[in-house]
Give the backbone structure.
Amino acid sequence: MDVLLIAGLWLDGSAWDDVAAELRSLGHHPVALTLPGQGDGAATATLDDQLAAVLAAVEATEGRPVVVGHSAACTLAWLAADARPEKVAKTVLIGGFPSADGSSYADFFEMRDGAMPFPGWGPFEGPDSADLDDGTKKAFEAAAIPVPEGVAKGTVRLTDERRFDVPTLVVCPEFTPDQAKEWITAGDVPELAKAKHVDFADIDSGHWPMRTKPVELAHLIATAT
């Protein structure tokens, strides 16, 4: 089955190399996306540009792909389900939740020269990064790609309520399924509160399981196929 892999902020498609290799060994066809502005050198890319790239990948598949989003890119996976509900078989959301209509995509940290650079590890101390050793952190930081302002400050637009019919798997790394369910019940994740088919899976990792638990993550993604 086709599995589209969308990495979160500061990452390009290579973040999925180990996960993709395991998915291939399981008989699937993973496609790791390098988004406009996050690996292709397009510093002026916008959220619309990134969504267009995701939708082009969806349309390029012969069947109905599983669309996987990590962290902020959970919203991109959700936007794909909104734009192509008849084409997306399932969304897999890793370490994040879809933003609501009208909200900013990922305006989280300081902008410098028209982009949002990786802010260092201070904001991610604790469960987010507890499973990353110093070498992995240094490699991550050295390779981090500043996110264009037009992406980070882009406005999320959702228009088709058929997105709520698309099944979703929420993979919980630095938080638990019980916590995720509590947040959804409390109204903190209104999109998933309206979704009709939501499952949860736990993975014992920090925020970047594709780095520290790629085999386990691949097997969880495979369950969604």
About this structure: The chain has a mean pLDDT of 96.
